[in-house]
Amino acid sequence: MTTLSRRHDFVLIFEVTNGNPNGDPDAGNLPRLDPETNHGLVTDVSLKRKIRNYVELARTGEAGHHIYVQEGSILNEKHRQAYTALRGEGTGKKEAKLNPKDDTEARELRDWMCRNFFDVRTFGAVMSTGINCGQVKGPVQITFANSVEPVLPMEISITRMAATNEAEQKKRAEGAEESDTRTDNRTMGRKHIVPYGLYFAHGFISAKFAERTGFSEADLDLLFEALANMFEHDRSAARGEMTTRKLIAFRHDSALGNAPAHLLFDRVKIGRNVDGEFRAADDAGLGNLRPARKFSDYMISIDREGLPIGVEILELL
Predict the structure, then answer these.
(1) Which among 313, 311, 205 has a CA at the least distance from the CA of 258?
(2) How many degrees, rounded to 5, is the angle at CA 204 between CA 73 and CA 35?
(3) DSSP string, 23-34
(4) How far apart are CA 266 and CA 79, in angstroms?
(5) Which of 36, 200, 221, 275 is 20 to 30 A removed from 121 (C-alpha atoms)?
(6) What are the helix (H) ranges across 125-203?
(7) d(Cα 270, Cα 281) in Å, to the nearest integer?
(8) Distance between CA 60 and CA 54 in Å, rounded?
(9) DSSP-assigned letter for residue 286
């Protein structure tokens, strides 16, 4: 496979409707918020998890597309696979710790992990947890996603009529004899949702770091495929409807790049759709508009004028 030779930067725009895009465990699983602006947040870790999940589904069992960070997996056992591949069967089966013999073997271990695990080759990994395969910085980095406008999370009460065990069923039956309302016999719960939010995140793909991990042109295509489709296979009662709406990439003609990423990102503007007219999201006059509740309430503008030499805009979605 051809190693990626050109730098790319991208803008990912996605929406959530009546769901919790990324709960904060330190705040009772409320949707993450910037406390000063009330703009919604989705962490880079959450987005990378969805990319990993998509690749695992789309490339199940394919060589070079295994996933290193999986729920319930033991990372050291994956490190042990690298030692077994290089040193032979039975190597280190009982050892709790293993270390490379020299710099050459350390490099071979890292390379083996990169060749076999898509997410190591893409995002990098720290693989020095006991059974040591070193660490590698990946070529793909993603920022936190921010909502275009402030969001107002809602707390929704939910109920469950079924009992979990016989004791609970008996307690409910006794309660029903003393109460005229059926609600006394339900198990109450709560869920948190964002009625609607449009989020954007920035991504960076370094061709120079791709040389170190072997991240290829085919891997880039798979990454963009995952970004476009990752929410299609992540449905749940908690997350509601989440959809990737836009994926805009800036392709450079060189490995080091032809323009600063922040200047390219500034070319993508997200504003409110006011009777077919683009209005910047920070326009003071927007205060009288009703809250956005669908993607068509927004407009996305891409400035293509005076594009730096050696930079191409790709609208992938």
Answers:
(1) 311
(2) 80
(3) EEGGGTTEEPB-
(4) 41
(5) 200
(6) 166-178
(7) 7
(8) 10
(9) G
Average pLDDT over residues 219-235: 95
pLDDT of the residue at 126: 94
DSSP secondary structure code for residue 165 in this structure: S
Residue 13 main-chain phi, psi, to 5 deg: -120, 125
> How many helices (H) and strands (E) would you count in the chain?
8, 15
Stated as kind and residue range, the H or E segment containing 95 is none
Those residues with Cβ within 8 angstroms of residue 209's Cβ, 6 or more apart along the chain or in another chain: 124, 137, 138, 139, 215
Query: Token pair of 130, please?
Result: 């006991």
310: left (phi over 0), alpha (psi -120 to 50) or beta: left
Q: How far is CA 98 from the centre of its chain?
A: 32
DSSP structure class, residue 290: P
172 falls in which pLDDT band (50, 70, 90)?
Answer: low
d(CA 240, CA 295): 15
Q: Indicate if the pLDDT at residue 280 is higher than 80.
A: yes
Q: Which of 258, 243, 251 is nearest to 220 (CA)?
A: 251
The dihedral formed by the CA atoms of 219, 221, 223 and 228, expressed in degrees to the nearest 10: -170
| Dihedral angle of Cα 254, 255, 260, 265, to the nearest 10 degrees | 90
pLDDT in tens, 200-215: 999 999 999 999 999 9
The Cα–Cα gap between 260 and 57 comes to 35
Supply the DSSP symbol for 143. P
Condensed to tens digits (0 to 9), the pLDDT of residues 52-91 reads 999 999 998 899 999 999 888 888 889 989 989 988 876 6
Q: Which helix (H) or strand (E) holds 288?
A: none
The DSSP bridge partners found for residue 11 are 202, 248
Contacts 24+ apart (CB under 8 A), 303-311: 303/267, 303/268, 303/269, 304/267, 307/267, 308/258, 308/259, 308/263, 308/264, 309/258, 310/252, 310/253, 310/254, 310/258, 310/259, 311/250, 311/251, 311/252, 311/253, 311/258, 311/259, 311/264
Cα first-last separation, the chain? 25
